[in-house]
Design brief:
Elements lengths: L16 E7 L2 H13 L4 E4 L5 E3 L4 E8 L4 E6 L2 E7 L4 H10 L18 H4 L2 E2 L2 E2 L4 E8 L4 E6 L11 H4 L4 E11 L3 E3 L3 H7 L6 E3 H14 L13 E4 L5 E2 L1 H5 L7 E4 L2 E4 L1 H6 L15 E3 L6 E4 L5 H19 L8 E3 L9
Parallel strand pairs: 1-4, 2-4, 3-20
Antiparallel strand pairs: 5-6, 6-11, 7-8, 9-10, 9-11, 12-13, 14-19, 15-17, 16-17, 18-19
Helix pairs in contact: 5-6
GO cellular component, one term: cytosol
Enzyme class: oxidoreductase
Organism: freshwater metagenome
């Protein structure tokens, strides 16, 4: 049976896979990868499919669906060490932690995908990043064919990046270790969450209430998967927030939201998009089945039957408008398979 990548990704675009297999154990996953590598056969690791834009021609190789499950928990006083297999659904882990009143990942509620993808992107939202709680990542090094364990500091985490993203074809994440805290309350670090809770940024909030507030905020933006909401047929935020030098950030209007970042000043991609003339529901071409989300300008949604070409056409148009208006080149957050955005055309 032919498997189309459009049926395996949240954006719903992508042609057929030449071959498709499911890895339901770590040994099976390692076996598939090492044997395909030895044969020089192309492969694509597929988790939840929530951060992929797959080309209309599909993938001329083997797609490996990672369905490796398993969670181990060790408590030492207030410290809770959790090790989750790469195929564990991310939000199920967050939900379990919140119910147990373990803090550290509650602001990352509602993010689709699997645990194995979280260190690759250094997944973050509403004031938290997984790098803040990851203790180690167990991974297959495809260069050597060996399994290694990288401590958190060895993962070279950056804003939406890591060593795993920098060398995508080298690493296969097998499991991720997190250290959470059995405190029941966590510091609220994001203004929208604080407002929803009726609190101030920096105050302590109940872990379950923070999770509930984040889920409500994400639903309002079409960022929680819902088959009845076409806005959620997306790859999430399509562009990352640019990190600029202080001098470059100073050239932007004062109304543009900005935040201190380790490598400079992080500015709001959504603000740049909206102030370049792109509105919610905007289309690059009238009648296109790809459109900016009706709830959130950072997301590109599949309104039904869109092709990857239509999605890319829209993304290029958005990026071109922002570059024309502000001389800033937006970087796409999803991974592109057998397609790309190409060069900016203003």
């Amino acid at each position: 049976m032919t498997v189309r990548l459009s049926d395996r990704t949240t954006l719903g675009v992508g042609g057929p896979a030449a071959d498709f297999v499911v890895a339901s154990s770590e040994a099976e996953l390692i076996g598939y990868v090492t044997s395909l590598d030895a044969a020089g056969h192309p492969l694509l690791l597929l988790g939840g499919g929530s951060n992929l834009v797959c080309g209309d021609a599909g993938f001329d190789g083997t797609v490996i669906a990672t369905e490796v499950r398993g969670i181990t928990i060790r408590a030492d006083g207030d410290e809770i060490d959790v090790v989750a297999a790469c195929g564990e659904p991310w939000d199920e882990l967050v939900s379990q932690a919140a119910e147990a009143r373990w803090t550290g990942i509650e602001a990352l509620s509602g993010i689709p995908g699997l645990v194995g993808a979280t260190p690759i992107q250094n997944v973050g939202a509403y004031g938290q990043e997984v790098s803040q709680t990851i203790t180690h990542v167990r991974a297959l090094d495809r260069r050597t064919g060996t399994v290694v364990e990288l401590a958190g500091h060895e993962c070279a985490f950056t804003y939406r990046g890591s060593v795993f993203k920098e060398e995508t074809d080298r690493w296969v994440v097998l499991s991720v270790g997190f250290r959470l805290a059995a405190r029941g309350e966590s510091v609220v670090r994001y203004a929208q969450v604080a407002d929803a809770l009726g609190q101030q940024v920096g105050e302590a909030g109940d872990v379950q209430r923070i999770r509930d507030a984040v889920l409500a905020l994400r639903r309002a933006k079409g960022m929680v998967l819902d088959r009845d909401d076409p806005d959620t047929r997306s790859a999430g935020s399509f562009f990352t927030n640019p990190i600029l030098t202080e001098s470059a950030a100073a050239t932007l209007p004062s109304q543009c939201p900005r935040y201190v970042a380790s490598a400079g000043v992080k500015v709001s991609a959504a603000w740049l998009i909206e102030h370049s003339g792109v509105t919610r529901g905007w289309q690059a071409v009238a009648g296109s089945r790809a459109a900016v989300s009706s709830k959130h300008t950072l997301a590109i949604s599949n309104r039904g039957g869109a092709t990857a070409s239509e999605v890319i056409e829209l993304a290029r148009a958005i990026r071109g408008r922002v570059h024309s208006a502000f001389a800033i080149e937006l970087e796409a957050e999803p991974r592109f398979v057998n397609c790309d955005l190409g060069l900016i055309v203003d």
